[in-house]
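Exercise (ungraded).
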Amino acid sequence: MTENIVEVVSIIAAALAVGFGAIGPALGEGRAVAAAMDAIARQPEAAGTLSRTLFVGLAMIETMAIYTLVIALLVLFANPFV
Amino acid sequence: MDNPLTVDTLFHLGPVPITTPVAVTWALMIGLTLFAWLSTRRLALVPGTLQTVLELFVTTVDGQVHDTMQRDPAPFRALIGTIFLFVLVANWTAVLPGVEPPTAHIETDAALAMIVFVATIAYGISGRGWRGYLATFAEPSWVMIPLNLVEQITRTFSLVVRLFGNVMSGVFVVGIVLSLAGLFLPIPLMALDLLTGAVQAYIFAVLATVFIGAAAGETPVAAKPDKEDTSP
């Protein structure tokens, strides 16, 4: 029974981690892309530099969401308490 | 659903277990090395189609490295180009049936990030000298030394986790959709995986360039012969 409770709590915790962990990066990526679109619209000749910087920045922001994903996977598949 | 954090042993080489990602990595290494050797064996002044493609690739890598570092790309071309090409091909093996990308396992990504970590230190020392490189850790003031040391670890770790998380989640999602919905539905997701794989390879290479460029310093070093294995 205790084993079962730990597993149930782990799955709920993984879902919560990914769900809430995705909010911040999603908002951040939205702002970054909006700013880049704005800049490209104002200055189309700088599109190359802007999109390169945008990609790197998006990867940086996205890493936060990936961290929560990895935590969720650790909880699901490598849980020390199961 | 397989556990993405474990690897299955393919065969044993003496007492050493050889896992599937290692075997795929070796196949990729052999393939890339053979391709590089065969395609650069007869270089002509008036290039053929293959040589034009290779020259375009090298020029693009040079341009990106130059744009990022603002210095002569020659000492970094081999390392950055090889990292980009290997990560790209490794991510794209996801489309081959029965082959899982080696970058979807955390060990391969850790090895790649360790290469970047060691290369950062090596280029830093060769660019600034021992004392100069160690002095960069106390850059704004000596208070920052612990933070700068921690940054070395965390940015390497985030390189590992970024590549692992992106590629692994792509493979994982395709597996889940395949088990739920059948044969043809994962195809758009696999196309998305190709894009993600290319972007991640680009980002891994650019971040390696940024780290190495920051370590090597602003003043251009004299061009030195490449020590790394040179794929184009």
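Further reading is listed at the end of the chapter. For now, observe: The longest helix of chain A spans residues 47-77. The mean pLDDT of chain A is 87.
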